[in-house]
Design a protein that fits this description.
D-Maltodextrin-Binding Protein, domain 2, alpha/beta, disordered N terminus, 5-stranded mixed sheet, 10 helices
């Protein structure tokens, strides 16, 4: 004789399990949209780059809307490697990250270092130049005194620099023009400067040489929106290629010669 079995508890459990699965499926985060950043640029045929053209020799406006400089030439070469042209958008540096974020251009260049803006929507390329501090000196000049501009990065990192340059005496100056004049008079052995300024002065003032070691690191990079990873990887590939073929070195020699 068959006995009756109450299936209601099991049915209730099954319903709850199905409801849970459905709820998880409904509430799961949506998949991010596909990354079409590189495709977008290549289909448009142009890489739009934002920059503040007031930082020679990296970027400068000649007053007639014509841009020139190290970063301008670099961006042109990167775009050429992507198979597109480049269009520059001049903008004040103070609003450049906001403009990138809302899509006014594809990338920004010009004095950008990783962490220059802490927002989570920005990502950075591999470095293309290190503008960290270096020692510029004339080995024939004694005593071993070197100039530091008050309020500069060299002044800010003075304790670190003293540890690395223990055989030198540091002398404070109000501005770089005073340091440059004193170096020219050969009454000062050297100075701690950013790499670009040091290279220019070494070409302008006889006897000065730039020590190759970076005393601090200030890597310059190209910034894009973090969602544009395919574009970022393509830009990275172009920077590495330009470094490998020596084109970035040639640009440095052209623009930092003073």
């Amino acid at each position: 004789m068959w006995s009756k079995v109450d299936l209601r508890p099991a049915l209730a459990i099954a319903v709850l399990l199905v409801a849970s699965v459905v709820a998880v499926w409904i509430l799961r985060p949506g998949r991010p949209p596909p990354d079409l950043s590189l495709q977008r640029v290549q289909q448009a045929g142009v890489l739009v780059v934002g920059l503040d053209p007031s930082y020679p020799p990296f970027e400068v406006d000649d007053g007639h809307g014509h841009l020139a400089g190290f970063d301008v030439d670099l961006a042109n070469r990167v775009a050429r490697g992507l198979g597109v042209s480049v269009r520059f958008v001049s903008i004040d540096f103070g609003s450049i990250f906001d403009a990138l974020e809302v899509g006014k251009f594809d990338a920004i260049i010009g004095g950008i270092s990783p962490g220059a803006d802490d927002r989570k929507t920005i990502d950075y390329s591999v470095p293309y130049f290190d503008d960290g501090l270096v020692l510029l000196e004339n080995p024939a000049v004694l005593p071993r005194s070197i100039g530091i501009e008050s309020g500069s990065d060299a002044d800010l990192y003075q304790d670190e620099l003293r540890a690395k340059l223990s055989g030198y005496q540091f002398k404070q100056f109000d501005d770089q023009s005073e340091i440059r004049a004193t170096l020219g008079q050969r009454t000062l052995r050297g100075a701690v400067l950013d790499a670009v300024t040091a290279e220019i002065w070494a070409r302008q003032i006889p006897g000065l040489v730039v020590r190759p070691e970076r005393l601090t690191t200030t890597p310059f990079v190209i910034a894009v929106r973090r969602a544009d990873q395919k574009l970022l990887r393509a830009i990275d590939d172009q920077i590495v290629a330009l470094q490998t073929t020596g084109q970035i070195t040639r640009l440095q020699q052209e623009w930092f010669r003073g």
